[in-house]
Amino acid sequence: MAGMNDLLDAIDALPGLPDTAARLIAALHDDTTAPQEIVQIMRYDEALTSLVLRLGNSVEYGRPGRIFNLEESISRLGRMRVLQACLQMQVSGLLDAAGESFGLRRGAIRRSAVGGAVIADELARARDDVAADEAFLGGLLRDIGKLVLDYRYGEQYIRSLAPHLRAGQNVMWAERAAFGFDHAQVGEALGRAWHLPDRLASAIGCHHDPPAGASEHDPLFDVIHAADVICLWAGLGVGDDGLAYPLSPHVRDGLRIDRSLAEALMMSAWTHVRQLDNIGNGSETAQEQIL
Amino acid sequence: MSATSDQHHADAVPGRIEVGVGDLAVSADPSTTLITYALGSCIGVTVYDPVVRIGGMLHFMLPNAKLNESKAQSLPGMFADTGVPMLFRACYDLGAVKERMVVCAAGGAEVLAEDGHFKIGSRNRTMLRKLFWKNNILISGEDTGGTISRTLSLELASGIVRIRNNSKERVLWPE
């Protein structure tokens, strides 16, 4: 049986986040970082600079009476929004090729990531205890563990689970029995290796089984979990593991998710995914559409 | 006719039309294979006229267009009650005849341990059966329910409908 150490080796061997993204995560996460330092990191990434300038000057942030420069745009957007834009841009390429370990076809993880981000964002906007930007990021990144499993095991991963699959049990149980870890734990480890904010990494780690107990409960975890399950219902990211991930009753009740809300969120996710597809994967315009 | 797919841009294969969620495709070209991937609670429907070798496929996500009528206008294939009639009409337009049509369905899976709050897959299955019953259409092959993901394909040269799950493939029609 492989262990988590084996996986950590695989994480080390994975292509890391692009340098700009890695430095920006660290800088944006540190409240003491001066805006000028963020500008210095960002200005060498032309595409990201261009995106932040456009977002900062968009009507979403108030009708501008003048053109805002990069530093002003960052202030207008807020740090989490800038981080969201950065990761959306930088991670989508990594996610596009991911999914082989779960029998997913090229593009499926990226689509599921976008769908999950949109659903998490909408669920968070209906609450006052979860920031929509943070929820968006959690929804976007929740399955990054599959990047590591693709790299380490490829299509053999899901096949190795077969002897451990039991009727009525979710796939994570089989993953732990076969490998000693599950893909959510691997995602959390990768998130920490990428220096994502601690709460986000934890949300990735428990996106299939968010804790219900008062001491560990976090509404962000609930939102990411719900977004993941609703994505599956919408046919986004359905791999060889099928629909073997239940919606936790405490999340269903806590977020007041009923069938009509779930169906509306499914539609919303697909609307955004299709918009992205129609525009063309990877174009700057596409990124603007979903941010 | 829409033939977009959630993956076709990535690895399109000549002669293969990939049908994405909320899409439908029909063809009268016998060299064509229609295929849809990752059917979870969604349902894939195939129709085929073996005499003229015309066939079509729909991948719908939700049972009823009343949920979002404006969306149903732009994406009728997203819903059973708008997508299924459109699928049949598109095949009739190409020359297929209702009485000869072979109809198969796959998908409609349910989330593990779902305790009846949502029933996304089962509501899709119920709506499909209701539509077929009202229109005197018999299902020739069906592989629905459970918690598994399915890939559904229809080969127009032969009319063979295949189901694939976890690398295992079987023929759904002819039995």
Separation, N- and C-terminal Cα atoms of chain A: 41 Å
Could you give the order of the helices and strands of chain B? EEEEEHHEHEEEE
Order of helices and strands of chain A: HHHHHHHHHHHHHHHHH
Strand content of chain A: under 5%
Mean pLDDT of chain A: 84
Shape of chain B: globular
Largest sheet of chain A: none
- The count of domains of chain A is 1
What is the largest interface, and how many residues per chain? A-B, 45 and 41 residues
For the secondary structure, the number of strands of chain A is 0
The percentage helix of chain A is 55-70%
CATH class of chain B, anyone? Alpha Beta
Low-confidence stretches of chain A: 280-291
Query: Count the helices of chain A. How many?
Result: 17
**CATH architecture group name of chain A:** Orthogonal Bundle
Major beta sheet, strand line-up of chain B: 1-3-8-9-10
Any key phrases for this structure?
heterodimer, A: 291 residues, mainly alpha, Hypothetical protein af1432, 17 helices, 0% strand, disordered C terminus, B: 175 residues, alpha+beta, 60s Ribosomal Protein L30, Chain: A, five-stranded mixed β-sheet, 3 helices, 10 strands, disordered N terminus
